[in-house]
Amino acid sequence: MTTRISIRGVARTFPLQGKDFVALGDVSLDVADNEFVTIVGPSGCGKSTLLNIVAGLDHPTGGQALVGGQAVTGPGPDRGVIFQQFALFPWLTVRRNVEFGLRTAGVPRAERRRRAEHFIDLVGLTQFADALPKTLSGGMKQRCAIARAYAVDPSILLMDEPFGALDALTRVRLQEQLLDTWSREKRTVMFVTHDVDEAVFLANRVVVMAANPGRIVEVIDVDLPFPRTEEVRLGPDFSRLRNRVWSAVYHQPAQERKPS
Ligand SMILES: Nc1ncnc2c1ncn2[C@@H]1O[C@H](COP(=O)(O)OP(=O)(O)OP(=O)(O)O)[C@@H](O)[C@H]1O
């Protein structure tokens, strides 16, 4: 399998009290084409920092991130980013939000419309294509954000706690829906979460991080079958994996945020 993302010895320090705080120590990870990787770990272990470096929204102070063999120097249309906050334009309808990136990329009107419709349909929002974001539930807004990210056809989706603000039931539904979308239109995904169940349910591999310095402590293969149905979620193999990830996350010594 081809490597799509290669994180090589990435470090990120921030100044703190006149010294350096090591948000990321020495992080290396390869993500294959069309692989779904989740990143889980305690608050402050550098999950968002790592994702932002791959997105080109932040820069490492050591090492480098490569996408398709090229060093990341900034954001690019090959990487779609989805954050916890829905970040939709409130004055634009669902359709216009989804078309937005295509418009800025100069895609002709008819093609814009066709692609927007395809992805709106894929996330199940066809009936709401002409609705404004304020009339949508949180889950629907996030589905719209996913359709918008997909529409510009990135090979990589970088998702930072996209379902973090949603209630448990909506969250589970969106996990299933995201996997359904992903299985029909495969992309390389890096997905940051606090939620161990979510991390296991979605992933081909779970990357467990620890803090101070931010680092990878374990990478766990998830050999559960697709589609990930409710039966899979309630089955013994899922609980075995969940318990394993849980121990790796929660049996870490408590760490204070301090400069080194
Ligand atoms: N711009 C910044 N300036 C100073 N410190 C920062 C900056 N960005 C992140 N940090 C610090 O780096 C560490 C890692 O932050 P990051 O947001 O990547 O963690 P995280 O694992 O995503 O946390 P959470 O799960 O709480 O969102 C934290 O201690 C944070 O305070």
UniProtKB/TrEMBL annotation:
Name the SUPFAM superfamilies on file: P-loop containing nucleoside triphosphate hydrolases
Q: What organism is recorded for this protein?
A: Dactylosporangium siamense
Q: Does the keyword Kinase apply?
A: no
Q: Name one GO molecular function term.
A: ATP binding
Source organism, top-level taxon: Bacteria
Every ABC transporter domain range: 5-236
Protein known as:
ABC transporter ATP-binding protein
**What residue intervals traverse the membrane?**
none
What UniProt keywords apply to this chain's record, in alphabetical order? ATP-binding, Nucleotide-binding, Transport
User: Sorted alphabetically, which SMART domains does this protein's record hold?
Assistant: AAA
One Pfam entry for this protein is ABC_tran
Q: Indicate whether Membrane appears among the record's keywords.
A: no
